[in-house]
Amino acid sequence: MKKHKKRKNKLTNIILEHIKNNAKDYFILSIIFIIGVLAGVFFINQTTEQQKGEISSYINTFITSLKEKKDIDSIGLLKDSIIKNITLALALWFIGSTVTLIPLIYGIVAFRGFCLGYTISAIIAVLGSTKGLLFSITTIFFQNILFIPALLAIALSGIKLYKSIIKNRKKDNIKAEIYRHSIFSIFMGTMLIGASLIEVYISSNLLNFFIVYM
Fold first, then answer.
1. Which of 3, 11, 164, 191 is the most exposed place for a label (fewest CB within 10 A)?
2. Residue 153's closest CA among 179, 177, 117, 189?
3. Could you count the other beta carbons within 10 Å of the beta carbon of residue 146?
4. Below-50 pLDDT ranges, the chain
5. What letter does residue 139 receive in the DSSP assignment?
6. For residue 94, which of 157, 144, 147 has the smallest C-alpha distance?
7. DSSP letter at 102?
């Protein structure tokens, strides 16, 4: 029990130290992500009535299908979610391992923020403030507790690798940094898989409960 507690404390200290040492870069990435979220909110507010009608029809159709369909293919949903998240992790890992493509990392972070802001705004626009927020919390919030930190962490790891390559061009050091970046990305990839599990087995059940309320 004491060993487990010591390991847990050690892991917590490592995570806190990592955040402390990279606070500036995490802050910049967080700002970019938030800008993406705000851009998504702004975009949905600028859509035409016809586009809003199409969005409303899509969300209402989705809710109706959930009400009518009793059996959900959890395995299929989990598989799709894991493939999507791991593909994202691999893309960030690959881009982070290059020099010329590094600006794409910022673009991906901003785009994921845009998707989140757009989705939440669309749901609220269709269902109203109260139901929209509840729907967003049940379907989006919990998996993002893991997803967003993992996304930012892999992005940061790629940026650190880029800076290391620029500052130190020794072949052995570059190999060591690529190895570090790869191991770190794998670890964050497990967090993304955890986000998929939450999405399928927790958020989906909460959503089914919320559908009854609606």
1. 3
2. 189
3. 21
4. none
5. I
6. 157
7. T
Give Rg (Cα) of the chain: 20
Tallying the residues shown for the chain, one arrives at 214
Structural domain that includes position 60: 2-213
Asked whether 178 and 122 are in contact (CB, 8 A), the reply is no
Whether this prediction's pTM lies above 0.70 is answered by: yes
From 121, 116, 145, select the one nearest 132 (Cα to Cα).
121
d(CA 76, CA 188): 23
Supply the pLDDT for residue 214: 59
Number of domains in the chain: 1
* Spatial CB neighbours of 191, under 8 Å, sequence gap ≥ 6: 146, 147, 149, 150, 153
**pLDDT tens per residue, range 25-43:** 999 999 999 999 999 999 8
Cβ atoms 140, 203 nearer than 8 A: yes
Task: Give the pLDDT of residue 136.
Answer: 86
CA dihedral 63, 192, 28, 134 (to 10 degrees): 30
